[in-house]
Design a protein that fits this description.
The protein is an alpha+beta fold. It folds into 2 domains: about 250 residues, BirA Bifunctional Protein, domain 2, CATH 3.30.930; about 90 residues, Rossmann fold (3-Layer(aba) Sandwich). The protein is about 35% helix and about 20% strand. The chain binds one RNA strand of 76 nucleotides through β6, β10, β11, α11 and α13. It is found in: Cytoplasm.
RNA sequence: GCGGAAUUGGUGAAGUGGUUAACACACCGGUUUGUGGAUCCGGCAUGCGUGGGUUCGAUCCCCACAUUCCGCCCCA
């Protein structure tokens, strides 16, 4: 049978999985220091969990959802984003209860699915690293989220990104602004691009970031969301941006920034990276915002919340260019070669002992010629080679060689039990 | 979902309507089964994405499909 992976999926092979491990462990460690704990939710949910939260007319729901009916006739969807499932779990497990410390803050590293045409940095199965924090409407919670996003990218080694922020305000603001946009664009509808004519009825906000020249000429005079913000949103937004400045976090006010999901209220933001080697135009690697009504939408109590998600594949593409250290192949500490009758089992024992001492060690299960064993040691980037020869072993002697410069010293069998001392001796 | 390009071994690739598909790297074996990264010698695609068709004959022409990449839509 000829086999092939499904379109839009990738195998992360051992040559690369180490880099993923490093990135994820940096993230986990980072979240731990901020006291965000991990949450793991199902890869699939009932279809409505996503359709209701993201919005029926959003692209994610209307054309990118990976959904199917299971054998019990349930309408299931693979998660297209991380937030909805976490909110569902928050409500279902009554994490809003008084015995849970607020804010309730979690992170996740999950696979995620969208049915789309694949491109570089866009797959049908991909991974998101995200955080969500429930229970606080304070601007400090927004700042916390933004600061974490910024500092995590910095710690990972992402360099040339730009933080774009905007505020969508509460539901009434969005509605008023929505109407203002419709009123503004409807008289000139015939002059808009086909895409924007469609957007006008489905999601007029999206017209704002159109790349079509026919639409662009109407944008400068289009209504601005800031003019529709209520006092409270305005004040909160100001507090947030003031703090960002004091924290030394650069940002760009972006009136045209709209996010693809309907559930956002208040601040929204994206970290965009521009790199001509990777993408024609600036690409978002991290996006997020405040969503104060999603918990209610799932029949939970009124609970403000804020979070962000990082596209891990895109992050990896950027890091490969900007922090190549993360992608260096790691070798092993010891390779044990052996030659002569009765030495092969000793090699097994020595490897076991070294591993117990915390070193990485390998021996040649194929028992090739000594020369081949050395070649293999090179290929696995061993730092040291220990050689067990039949003649020497009779006298309890063996030797160790440092591959970088060929330095060799003799050891006794007992030295194996304390290799750190041997290494120190070699370094002298 | 729409438009475009690509698809030859483990990798980078050359190539032609007709007997053995170039070259390079990598890999494997040998070069005194006891010490690697060098040299030299040898091996390494019955096969040119998959399935059809045209032809005496196709990797090379035609069609369909698949996958990848690029742009659009949208997004991570």
């Amino acid at each position: 049978m000829k086999v092939q992976r499904p379109k839009g999926t990738v195998d992360i092979l051992p040559g690369e999985s180490g880099s993923w491990e490093k990135v994820e462990s940096i993230a986990r460690n980072f979240f731990k220091r901020a006291n965000y704990r991990e949450i793991r939710t199902p890869s699939f949910e009932n279809y409505e969990v996503f359709s209701r939260s993201s919005g029926e007319t959003s692209d994610v729901v209307s054309k990118e959802m990976y959904d199917f009916n299971d054998k019990g006739g349930r309408h299931i969807a693979l998660r297209p984003e991380g937030t909805a499932g976490v909110v569902r779990a928050y409500v279902e497990n009554k994490l809003y209860g008084p015995d849970v410390v607020k804010p309730f803050s979690v992170y996740y590293i999950d696979n995620t699915f969208r049915y789309e045409r694949p491109q570089a940095g866009r797959q049908r199965e991909f991974h998101q690293i995200g955080v969500e924090s429930f229970g606080s409407d304070s601007p400090l919670a927004d700042v916390e989220t933004l600061m974490m996003a910024h500092d995590l990218l910095a710690e990972l080694g992402v360099k040339n990104y730009e933080l774009h922020i905007n505020s969508l305000g509460n539901a009434q603001v969005r509605e008023a602004y929505h109407d203002a946009l419709v009123n503004y664009f409807t008289p000139v509808k015939d002059q808009l691009s086909e895409d924007s004519q469609r957007r006008l009825s489905q999601n007029p906000l999206r017209i704002l970031d159109s790349k079509d020249e026919r639409d662009k000429k109407f944008l400068p005079n289009a209504p601005k969301i800031v003019d529709y913000l209520d006092d409270e949103s305005r004040k909160s937004f100001k507090t947030i941006t003031d703090m960002l400045e004091q924290l030394g976090i650069n940002y760009v006010m972006d009136d045209d920034l709209v996010r693809g999901l309907d559930y956002y209220t208040g601040i929204i933001f994206e970290f965009m990276v521009e790199d001509k080697n990777l993408w024609e135009s600036a690409t978002t690697i991290l996006g997020g915002g405040r969503y104060n009504h999603l918990v209610e939408e799932f029949d939970g109590p009124e609970t403000p919340a804020v979070g962000f998600g990082i596209g891990e594949e895109r992050l990896m593409l950027v890091l490969k260019e900007q922090n190549p250290d993360l992608f260096q192949e790691e070798g092993i500490d010891f390779f044990i070669t052996n030659i002569g009758a009765g030495t092969e089992f000793k090699a097994v024992e020595v490897a076991r002992s070294l591993r117990e001492q915390g070193f990485s060690a390998q021996y040649d299960v194929d028992q090739k010629k000594l020369k081949q064993q050395f070649r293999k040691a090179d290929r696995v980037h061993a730092t040291f080679v220990i050689t067990l020869g039949a003649k020497e072993l009779e006298n309890g002697v063996l030797n160790i060689k440092r591959l970088s410069d060929g330095k060799i010293i003799d050891l006794s069998l007992e030295d194996i039990n304390n290799m750190q001392d041997v290494i120190n001796k070699l370094e002298d």
